[in-house]
Amino acid sequence: MGVVRGAYPSRVSDAAIAARPADAGSQEAARPPRRVVAHCDVDAFYASVELLRRPELAGKPLVVAGTGPRAVVTTASYEARKYGVDSAMPAARARALCPHAIFVPPDFTAYRAKSKEVWDLVRERIEAIQQVGIDEAYLDVTDVEKPLRVLRALVAELREQTGMTMSVGVGPSRLVAKTVSASFKPAAFAALSREDACERFAGASTRILQGVGPKTAERLAAMGITTVGDLQRHEQEVLVQRFGERMGAYLKARSWFYDDSPVQAGGPAKSRSNETTFPQDIADHAELESVLHRLAEGLCATLQRREIKGRNVAIKVRLDDWTTVTRARSLAERTNDLATVMPVVLDLFRVYAPERPVRLLGVRLAAFEEPAQDAPAPLAPPGQLSLGL
DNA sequence: TCTGGGGTCCTAGGACCC
DNA sequence: TCTGGGGTCCTAGGACCC
């Protein structure tokens, strides 16, 4: 049952989506081709997986969260969200807000398995897919005939075969598609043009724009810009002054929902890390060093399993006052060997030698690529290029 | 009853080379 | 002797996303 959620638009037609600007004799060759992009987002993914396993919990507020004193909420069911519980909130606060909620520790193995089920099925239908995390993906359905019909069928099939409910937003860009699905979920199915999005979301907080996080929203608010409409009306010059050339232009473009970023599958990972937050801060360096050993061991095991080696070793230290420090060193050779990595980790830690209690430690390996051996040839021999004139 | 873990990208400054 | 300007590589911090 492809229910249209969110008040707008009550019905979108494939004909309207397919309509393209007349490109007859196109003098305006610069106009980018019109695209149709969908953003697909599984509703309350972790909580939904838990509900499948325990159907007796259906309709009850469910919170997936760790158990430690510093745990945060990973996902809350929509019943729990009614009480103000939301992702990334400290679990203790969630408990205070909704004491009768059922709290379940996360089971990432199960979520990964269900995620594979979901996206394998989507991939069978749609070629151009960019998965983002475990429960989201962008689809480029420009070349799909009757894209909305196909997407509706996909949503129905997904529900039938996997038990998951997917929200879908459609638009001419990833930005519009994402904003639509996020605004109308759960069980969203809606499409908006760029112009519609500009109108529809003009009164909404700047935070709904992907790319505007808490810090940027705060800086904007200090300038009197709290809504997307405020941002639309603001001089780009002023934005550029405050945020720099690039970010200023980016913010202005976002407010008018201009976005030409392509839907493209991400390449191989660029870094891997392993980090942990302690239930209580640790001041003892010997104890901290043994944690580093455990983290490096786990990281190296992962890299060995995946047959990846890195040249850049880094540690991360978060102090009790929340200051976060990173220290990194590049090696001559790529490695995933604990006997090579660990002395570097220890040296970085001992040179930094935190003077306050530590709440988090992390170890990271990066620079996986073979140093570019097939780099493009220089335009001219270096000798000629160098001191020209 | 403060703030997880795993990532990506951007910026800025310094070293070094030509 | 002093001058100018790029490149690249590297480190550190920060914002953002799921």
Helix content: 25-40%
Which structural class is indicated by helix and strand composition? alpha+beta
- Please state roughly what percent of the residues sit in beta strands, choosing from under 5%, 5-15%, 15-25%, 25-35%, 35-45% or over 45%: 15-25%
The tally of beta strands, per DSSP, is 12
Give the overall shape, derived from the CA principal axes: globular
Helix-strand blueprint:
Layout: H1 14-18, E1 37-42, H2 45-53, E2 62-65, E3 73-76, H3 78-81, H4 91-97, E4 102-104, H5 108-125, E5 129-132, E6 136-140, H6 147-162, E7 166-171, H7 174-184, E8 189-191, H8 194-200, H9 214-222, H10 228-233, H11 236-243, H12 245-255, E9 271-282, H13 285-305, E10 310-319, E11 324-335, H14 338-352, E12 358-366, H15 382-386
Parallel strand pairs: 2-4, 7-8
Antiparallel strand pairs: 1-6, 1-7, 2-3, 5-6, 9-12, 10-11, 10-12
Helix pairs in contact: 11-12, 13-14
This protein binds a DNA duplex (18 and 18 nucleotides) through residues 65-66, 68, 70-74, 87-90, 92-93, 95-96, 132-136, 210-216, 244, 246-247, 266, 269-277, 312, 314, 322, 324-330, 360, 362, 382-383, 385-387.
Please explain how this structure is put together.
- The chain is α+β, with helices and mostly antiparallel strands.
- It is built from 15 helices and twelve strands.
- The strands form three sheets. Strands 5-6-1-7-8 form a five-stranded mixed β-sheet. The chain has a four-stranded antiparallel β-sheet with strand order 9-12-10-11, with helices on one face. The protein has a three-stranded mixed β-sheet with strand order 3-2-4, sandwiched between helices.
- Helix 13 packs antiparallel against helix 14.
- The chain is globular, with a radius of gyration of 25 Å.
- The N terminus and C terminus are likely disordered.
- The structure holds a DNA duplex (18 and 18 nucleotides).
